[in-house]
Amino acid sequence: ERRALSSAPAEFGRERLGWFDLPAAEEKPIGLGEWAALAVQLEKRPPGTPCFFLDCSPELASSSINAATLVGGRPYVELADYRPGADWLVDRAVELDKRYPGARFAVFAAGAVSALLPDLEEHGVKPEKFTNQDMGRACGHLQKLVADKAMGHSGDPLYTTALAGAVKRDVGDDLWTWSRRKSADISPIVSATGALWLLETQPAYDIGDSVF
Q1: How far apart are CA 208 and CA 212, in angstroms?
Q2: Which residues, at least 6 apart from 79, have a Cβ–Cβ distance to it below 8 Å?
Q3: Nearest to 29 by CA among 205, 163, 156
Q4: Torsion 120-209-36-200 (CA) sign
Q5: Choice between 39 and 47, residue whose per-residue pLDDT is larger
Q6: Which of 165, 168, 184, 160 has its CA nearest to residue 57?
Q7: Average pLDDT, whole number, for the chain?
Q8: Separation in Å, CA 159 to CA 3, 142, 156, 189
Q9: Helices (H), the chain
């Protein structure tokens, strides 16, 4: 029967052995090699007032804070904090808010981090709330920055781990966001994405020294 099926061995496997084609691998919008090439080891922390994005993984299993600012006129993002759980996030955000008066904070309003919004606002941290459309624009912005080699990042291995397990989700109007349902723990790259878009929409930049 194998000889009778003159095409590729895959046909015999499919027709006689029941080996069906596997679905195509999910498209990775950002390649690990492309991302790794943008890692920059700075001698000191970048200047300027950072833009902070807070994120929690589903069920508040882990949380991340990313800080974005300009370095030499180019966007630069650093994972300012990442820990299991979410009970630490409000205190850390308050600390950063006091350290950097005037810094912008943002969250994804439909994400798990929304559960912490009342506590954040009660302590004086009032994050901007990203919609699905905002996150779609943020993801497209990150994709373009990486493709154009127009940004830098701290090279934290948690970025690589998150990207390796990340899958995208189409949200319409040619936009996409990171899929929580199909991905691993992607909180570090989600908050990096948001921080860079917050920086992009920043009307002006300070030039003072900053230490995350």
Answers
A1: 13
A2: 64, 65, 66, 154, 156, 158, 159, 188, 191, 192
A3: 163
A4: positive
A5: 39
A6: 184
A7: 87
A8: 49, 13, 6, 6
A9: 9-16, 32-36, 89-99, 117-122, 132-147, 157-164, 187-200
Q: Which two tokens stand for residue 57?
A: 């993984």
Please give the biggest Cα pair distance in the chain: 76
State both tokens at 49.
């007032």
Alpha-carbon dihedral 65, 71, 74, 80, rounded to 10 degrees: -10
pLDDT band at 46 (very low <50, low <70, confident <90, very high): confident
- From CA 184, how far away is CA 77, in angstroms rounded? 21
Residues 6+ apart with CB under 8 A from 51: 67, 68, 69, 103, 104, 105, 106, 195, 198, 199, 202
pLDDT score of 203: 73
